[in-house]
Amino acid sequence: MKKGVSFLVAVALMALASFLASAFDLSPLQDICVGINDPKNAGLNTLGISIVCIDHAPYGVNPPHIHPRAAEIFTVLEGTLLVGFVTSNPEHLCISEVLNKGDVFAFPFGLMHFQYNIGHTNAVAIAALSSQYPCVITIANTTFGSSPPINRDILAKAFQLDKKVVQYLQARFQSETRGNEGAINL
Predict the structure, then answer these.
(1) 10, 57, 114, 173: which could form a disulfide with 144 (CB 3.0–4.6 Å)?
(2) Across the chain, what does the average pLDDT equal?
């Protein structure tokens, strides 16, 4: 009889515990559902991916940036690009590679990365991102072009720069940023 009661108590506790259990989405921001109102691309709705074609002029750069909600697979269709990313604290290791037509490179989730056309001709690449809304944060624009601006003392100390250099950079990036209010935020 004692074994039967112990078994029932154990079953009751497990039932209670399973009732209290909850699921967790590792990336809840990816649950944003953005519908595409285009019959040709309707199949992309809610797949959780984005695809971008990037045209690089000779010596053009896609400056250091991050996608806080996505990893990226980058494929070169034409040209030669130097691509890379920087690992997080404390190593800050820059992992880069020269890519030619047909080469593929992966940028990990949320790490700062860049692309630079080192060729004399145009370069074209396709990037596939693991989110419908990966967002893009361009490091220099965010740091020096914020509104209101980040305190110059903070930036001067963080980047070990003279305050006049910080002032110059803020003025330059703030005027640049103000002209992009209509830009699409990937």
Answers:
(1) 173
(2) 82
By C-alpha distance, which of 116, 104, 110 is closest to 135?
110
Q: Are 72 and 127 in contact (CB under 8 A)?
A: yes
Three-state DSSP at 146 gives coil
* Distance of alpha carbon 129 from alpha carbon 127, whole angstroms: 6
What global pTM score does this model have? 0.72
Edge to edge, what strands does the sheet with 123-129 contain?
50-56, 123-129, 72-78, 104-107
* 62 contacts: CB under 8 Å, gap ≥ 6: 54, 56, 114, 115, 116
For 56-74, what is each residue's pLDDT tens digit?
A: 999 999 999 999 999 999 9
Of 43 and 86, which is predicted with more confidence?
86
